[in-house]
Design goal:
The strands form 2 sheets. The chain has a 5-stranded parallel beta sheet with strand order 2-3-4-1-5, covered by helices on one side. A two-stranded parallel sheet has the order 6-7. The chain contains 7 helices and 7 strands. The N and C termini lie far apart (41 Å). It has 173 residues and is α/β, with parallel strands linked by helices. Helix 2 links the parallel strand 2 and strand 3. Helix content is 44%, strand content 16%.
Length: 173
Amino acid sequence: LFCGGRGTGKTTVARIFARDIGCNPEDIIEIDAASNRGIDEIRELREAVRTAPFSSPYKVYIVDEAHMLTKEAANALLKTLEEPPSHVVFILATTDPDKLPETIVSRCQKLVFEIPKKEILAERLLHVAEKEGKHLSKNAALLLADHGKGSYRDALGMLEQVLVTAEKEVTDD
């Protein structure tokens, strides 16, 4: 169970983890529980986990926004989480673990992705700007980090917009 604020890297780390355990892209299945939250979708998932991976030692199911599953869907998923086939790994990602049933949370290893401090986020923005061949002032990086509100994704998206229009140097102006 990967939990933490939005844009902190939960789904990205889930993808990296899947690749690190030897999964090829065709054996990494991402499910958006915000759109596929019902019991019918979970029943389909329970059937799908029985099939062997295409070309990897494992199939990894990344259930994003897991807190959006209906109560019935969460209960249907519970049995599969308790006794998954040996070739299946589940990674649940959520911004709100308190909305998940305790029966699911108690069966997961919980990893908390903390929201980065503004200074840490600014350092990452400075690093990315440097790799892109642009000079970003420290004040500009802090300003972007502040507007990112603890989200790497949002802050990097704003940096990208700024760098596309910027000359060689970006200041807080």
